[in-house]
């Protein structure tokens, strides 16, 4: 059995409280999808693109560097930013009344690809998923 053999075999998507993102607010919220970058690396890239200090970027938590992860970040009175590179995509997601905090996160959704299962492993895995 092989788990996380390729980068795209592990995906994490942050789940936010439904009332956090709004049509208006003092904070601009961004959806950030990254690979081979830490959350702090991605926040620094967002800060550069928005012309603010990295400490001005708020986030609800940190995501794995190994895999493809999507999380939200917010900047007070942030400007519109849209970037797409091989390892990082930043897009506007809306607005909020306050910066992001761990309380705004409902957790994470995971997708994990498992390769090379034999029949015995598959028989054990199926009822336990």
Q: Give the CA-based shape.
A: elongated
Q: How far from one another are the termini? A: 16 Å
Beta-strand fraction estimate:
35-45%
Structural class: alpha+beta
Return the string of H and E elements. EEEHEEEEEEH
Cα Rg: 17 Å
> Fraction of residues in helices?
10-25%
Mean pLDDT: 93
Instruction: Please give the number of β-strands.
Output: 9
Task: Describe what this molecule looks like in 3D.
There is one protein chain. The chain is α+β, with helices and mostly antiparallel strands. It has two helices and nine strands, in the order E-E-E-H-E-E-E-E-E-E-H. Strands 2, 3, 4, 5, 6, 7 and 8 form a seven-stranded mixed sheet that branches. Strands 1-9 form a two-stranded antiparallel sheet. The model has no long low-confidence stretch (mean pLDDT 93).
Which terms would index this structure?
single chain; 129 residues; alpha+beta; seven-stranded mixed sheet; two-stranded antiparallel sheet; 2 helices; 17% helix; elongated
Overview in brief:
The chain contains 2 helices and 9 strands, in the order βββαββββββα. It is an alpha+beta fold and 129 residues long.
